[in-house]
Design brief:
Largest sheet: 2 strands, antiparallel
Number of helices: 2
Length: about 140
């Protein structure tokens, strides 16, 4: 029995040695292989047509670039519209203030009108300014000058 255990032990040692020899002689593992440009991957669609995956990816990339440009233009337009809105809001505030001042001016009561001072009945002083005396008849309104 001792010889049998020795023989199995020797057999296991030889097996380990063989495995280690195979691992050391094996080529070093490379990174994942990159697909070659000449070999195109084809995809079969539901309708039975065949498309190259690379072509489909390039179309999707082009569409993505176009959408990014469009979204950038929209962002710029939104910024311009916000600035315009702020300017219009400022102008509206100015106009509201002007309307408020005009309303206060319109609603303010007018100063009382004083009746013209009548000269006492016995005073014959000529009236002031360019008015003709009361005893001279005034020319008719439609008469030529």
């Amino acid at each position: 029995m001792g010889k049998l255990i020795g023989f199995v032990f020797f057999l296991v040692l030889c097996s380990f040695g063989f495995v280690l020899l195979q691992l050391s002689l094996r080529r070093p593992a490379r990174g994942p292989s990159v697909p070659r440009a000449s070999s195109t991957m084809l995809e079969i669609q539901e309708d039975g047509s065949v498309y190259a995956v690379g072509l489909r990816l390039s179309r999707l990339e082009d569409r993505l670039v176009e959408e990014e440009k469009y979204s950038g233009a929209l962002r710029e337009e939104i910024t311009a519209l916000r600035a315009e809105r702020a300017e219009l809001t400022r102008q509206l505030d100015v106009l509201r203030g002007e309307v408020r001042t005009l309303r206060t001016q319109v609603n303010r009561p007018a100063p009382p009108v004083r009746p013209p001072v009548q000269p006492p009945p016995g005073n014959n002083t000529p009236p002031a300014g360019n008015t003709p005396p009361s005893n001279v008849p005034a020319p008719p309104l439609n008469a030529p000058l």
